[in-house]
Please model this.
Amino acid sequence: MLSIENITHSIDVWLNRTFSPTVAVLLESLIVGLCVIGLFALLGLVLVLMERKVSAYMQIRLGPNRVGPGGSLQTVADTLKLAMKEGLTPDGADKFLFNLAPFLVIVVAMMILAPVAFAKGTQIWDINIGVLYITAISSLSVIGILMAGWASNNKYSLLGAMRSGAQIVSYELSAGISVISIVVLTGSLRISDIIASQQDGWWLFKGHVPAVISFIIFIIAVTAETNRAPFDLAEAESELTAGFHTEYSGMKFALFFLAEYVNIFIVCAIAATLYLGGWMPLHIGHWAGFNGVMDYIPSSLWFIGKTFFLIFMIMWFRWTFPRLRIDQLLNLEWKYLLPLSMVNLLLTALIAIERWHF
Amino acid sequence: MFLKKYISEVFGAVRSLLKGMRLTGYYFTHHKEIITQQYPDNKEEMRLPDRFRGEVVMLHDEKNEHACTGCTACELACPNGTIKIITKFDITPEGKKKKALDTFIYHLELCTMCNLCIEACPTDAIKMAQNFEHSVYDRSKLTKKLNKPGSKIREGVE
Amino acid sequence: MIEEVGTTEQGDLVINVGPQHPSTHGVLHLVITLNGETIKKVEPHLGYIHRSIEKMCESLSYRQFIYVTSRMDYLSSHINNHGCALCVEKGMQIEVPARAKVIRVLMDELTRLASHQLWWGAMAMDVGALTPFFHAFRERETINDIMEETCGARLTMNYMVPGGVMADIHPNFQKRVKEFLQFFRTKIDEYDELVTGNIIFCSRMKGIGYLSPESAVSYGCTGPTARGSGISCDIRKLYPYEVYGELQFDEVTVAEGDCFARYMVRMQEMRQSLSIIEQLIDNIPEGEFQAKTKAVLKLPKGEFYSRVETARGEFGVYIISEGATTPYRIKFRSPGFSNLSALDHMARGHKIGDLVAIMGTLDLVIPDIDR
Model:
């Protein structure tokens, strides 16, 4: 059967046969790098179009429908437009940091992609501390935003960056603790182990109350972490014009824009991996017949379907809710979500120690 | 008691959020609610109301005759100096001199479509047309001459 | 004066909000002094859209000057025109036919609905929800279509003339308005579902931008802004003009004085406007739509004042006439200007996000403030 796993395996075998192992690894890294960049470009185009269409239908509009069939090439045209534009650097800006910031943000987004399992056996790097790696790297993106806000020498940008800093640092806690709940239940930090543990049912549907609670907290926290409405205070269009990227234009702006959507994809992919079984088809216990039927759907489709479902949820939030204020945002985290997720973690630990989980 | 109130508050909050999501979800799935008009494509079937004020035109009949006596009532009624009427003196068959319209100049770029000139006209010589696509590449094209070349006043209009 | 450097001696951050800023809805320029995120002072700077309308009106005749007032508060242009027409009629002692009176009130209330709908969408957009704006425009477009059919334009109609209205209502008018009433009755419940009940929206609104009744009076606030502080100031009730005295409707006042109170006043006013239109739409008396007036209007020597209730508050027209065909001096009392002056008082001590919310509830139309 033709699957991504077979393709990657045969490429690996062929490279190792043709070249020495060192050259083969280098070539593989190159291919992976190109694939990631290609994936980024594709994600940017697809997700921006998806967001525009989703928002349009919710707002009783049609959305882009002129460029290409059904408006499908609209984002390509937008990207071309942005690429043509002059990348301005303001006179008073710190030129080095100003130009570094968008690349930092995008590099961070690329690095988190490493341990994500896209399909059965398709993972760039199955590191044994996968979840920890993701949590650690994702905290780095705030540096890029702070850098952009500070180096712009613009007061709106500065306020946006400071808000973003406070926000991401706070919500990282809840997101981290909810992730740990699943790690406690699974007993492993390795992504492939976590997926394998959902062989007989996804964590969300296994009937563990703490898992469900931690899923809800995780979704709220990552919405905040990716600066999406109703937590888009770092951009807060009606308050700070565009927040931390007010001064950016052209391709540098496009990189921020791209990073936002790639980050959404990544957090949704992680949520899908941890709670919805990643590429694991829908299995119910040990119903062999049902599970066998579900296995016929390719694992990559499962993964993409789950991820896009979660992305749609996050878009749905954005186009329905008003924005929170900065103090309400921090109240929500420190007074509600953090205590709740800690109690939840305690509960999970109890379940794990007593071996009540299955 | 406190806990009960707290929990009911939280549930009320979540319900209010879900209500909004239900509404947007309804519109997301019901595409027939979309009200967008595809403007340049629907030009054929698009109908503007008769009273829509697009621009001032002068009515000419098939004999190339209009009803304007050149009385300048519209020029006086216009708040912006949009209309400028140049008159001339025609010689009637009886050999008398009679004031008549020479050129009706209409500055579309100054017009605010307030309809006061139409109201002021005693002979209903001008009216508002429904054309609203006025953009041109040269501003001078917006200064229009409303009476057609060679046109003259209709018999019997005083 | 504020220094260009951007910080004051106390180390506060000074930010220019506007004249080009997404939340100011026009060319309003606010200089805000911040301590972190907390607002210490708000200074509105005006003049970016000053067109000296009052001076312009001095050179226009009493028929002509009315159309200019549509360009002030363009969202309630009918009501502005109405105020001017009333003032001229007062001076000339023109008796307006009963039909024209009812048509005028109908148009006023439709305008008020359209204005409040736009406000509702823009208000929600200010606090970060983008979808309500489009939902509000769906209803507003329906009203605009009705207006277009009868008045000939969608925004600056110039439909009111001294002595009545410019043209009779379109034959379809009553049918379409009734359809709209039915349609909007269902949609206004959706408004509540989408925004009013939303917990995030409530927490953004409640307790923010408190305006006490005393300060509302002392700043000269009128309209929903003052009625949100419990002040009864509806010109339609206090000094009824046209047929408002004979109608059954409530003046909406909410006592809390915060943003949510002002929001609720407008939401309930929409329902009141609906009931006014319902009362009138089947009872338009037959007759003339315009009184016979002289071709050239000349107001007698003297001073004339009339006021109407626009969607934003009290709109006053003050004409000094020397007996000529043009006014000697015209002064407009626009509601937005006084309402804006209370912004500093309301916004102090709140966050930047609240400033945007407060501005949203004031329902500012900048050309109305600047003239």
Summary: The mean pLDDT of chain C is 86. The beta strands of chain C are 13-17, 29-35, 38-45, 160-161, 164-165, 302-309, 314-321, 329-333.
